[in-house]
Amino acid sequence: MKPKTPSKSSRFGNPTALDVEAPFFGATVQEWDTAFTGDMDKTLAEIKLRASSSPKRNASKAVTSDLASAAGKRLANAK
């Protein structure tokens, strides 16, 4: 007997985008999005700002010998 091959479903063939005001399990899509992602745009902007204003890492003064330090020292000496 041959095993049955699953038939192709058109269920995922035409995905649709939900409107932010569309009801979904008792809340709007926008409320679900906020619950899952929080204020991610603001958080990412804060992280980017902190990273750009933080002191830069100096591989030549690194106390530990990790991969990033070793690579940084080799690149500094290669110039």
Description of the structure:
- The protein contains three helices and two strands; from the N terminus they run E-E-H-H-H.
- It has 79 residues and is mainly alpha-helical.
- Strands 1-2 form a two-stranded antiparallel ribbon.
- A hairpin with a 2-residue loop joins strand 1 (23-24) and strand 2.
- The longest helix is centred in the middle third of the chain and has 14 residues, at 40-53.
- The radius of gyration is 25 Å and the shape is flat.
Put simply, the count of helices is 3
Mean pLDDT: 77
Going by helix content, strand content and strand pairing, the class is mainly alpha
Strand order of the largest sheet: 1-2
- Uncertain runs with pLDDT below 50, 5 residues or more? none
Mind describing the biggest β-sheet?
2 strands, antiparallel
- Basic shape: flat
User: Gap between N and C termini, in Å?
Assistant: 69 Å
Order of helices and strands: EEHHH
Count of individual beta strands:
2
Radius of gyration: 25 Å
User: What is the subunit arrangement here?
Assistant: single chain
Proportion of β residues? 5-15%
Helix fraction by DSSP (H/I, runs of at least 4): 40-55%
